[in-house]
Amino acid sequence: MEWLITAAGVLLVLVALRDLFHTLWHPTGRGSLSTAVMTGLWRLVRRFGADGTVAALAGPLAMIAVILMWALIIVAGWTLVYWPHIPDGFSYGPGLRPEERTDIVDGLYFSLVMVGTLGLGDIAPTDAWLRVAAPLEALIGFALLTAAVSWISQIYPALTRRRLLATRLSSLRTTGLPPPPGTTATAVLLQQLAEDVNHVRIDLTQHAETYYFHDGEPDTALAAMADYAADLAVQGQHSREAAVRMSAAMLGKALENLAATLGTYFLRTDGTPRQTFAAYAADHGYTPVRA
């Protein structure tokens, strides 16, 4: 029975590490547990409205909730690893009576000390395998802290790229395409927009958590401006210039791929790109901006 409990603890730790790997380092960037936590928190926030201060906190709170979830699962798993072997597998400092140390609280306490790399020393493992297991938990705790810091640092460049694209589209809506229509400048501009849309799609694929960050004003929100980008692609495809039509087709294809990513992974829709962009805007509390 003792080893079954220990095995259950090891399984919990592996579940947390697998989810951490799939969220931070797997090409899809989607761990099943982290996705469930972030999606659930986002839906909860949507019940109070997607705009305002609460919505702005949804993304950061979702990341904090995921990191805490990983930490809690790891601590719980190692607690189960240690618990069946208390007190026989450990030595105790002065004032602690081993014959009284049979509670799961001791396992939880030692797990918290090790995952936090505190090394207090009042309880220490004596069994050979526990003396190996305990430092391993400390290494996992250090890796979790490092991974969390790395994760946070990777998010904001992706958010910046998305918001810059939305800002560029908003400026174009105000000033219009470079006159006269059909010039080389128009083709270059549409091609650059296509590249920016592709970057955003890749960011959403590799950093799915960025979807749950609210962008504030509509002119910095791709959820509001995506429909206008589709309008630009349609306008460009009616140009007399072959270069403009080709760049517009590239933009249209990039938008189709973006809509497919949004529909498949976040909105669970399979409609046209326009329908997906409308659902994207609604999910973030915006009205789609048109040309």
Automatic annotation (TrEMBL):
<feature type="domain" description="Potassium channel">
    <location>
        <begin position="83"/>
        <end position="153"/>
    </location>
</feature>
<dbReference type="Pfam" id="PF07885">
    <property type="entry name" value="Ion_trans_2"/>
</dbReference>
<dbReference type="GO" id="GO:0034220">
    <property type="term" value="P:monoatomic ion transmembrane transport"/>
</dbReference>
<feature type="transmembrane region" description="Helical">
    <location>
        <begin position="104"/>
        <end position="124"/>
    </location>
</feature>
<keyword id="KW-0812">Transmembrane</keyword>
<keyword id="KW-0813">Transport</keyword>
<keyword id="KW-0407">Ion channel</keyword>
<keyword id="KW-0406">Ion transport</keyword>
<protein>
    <submittedName>
        <fullName>Potassium channel family protein</fullName>
    </submittedName>
</protein>
<feature type="transmembrane region" description="Helical">
    <location>
        <begin position="61"/>
        <end position="83"/>
    </location>
</feature>
<dbReference type="InterPro" id="IPR013099">
    <property type="entry name" value="K_chnl_dom"/>
</dbReference>
<keyword id="KW-0472">Membrane</keyword>
<feature type="transmembrane region" description="Helical">
    <location>
        <begin position="136"/>
        <end position="159"/>
    </location>
</feature>
<keyword id="KW-1133">Transmembrane helix</keyword>
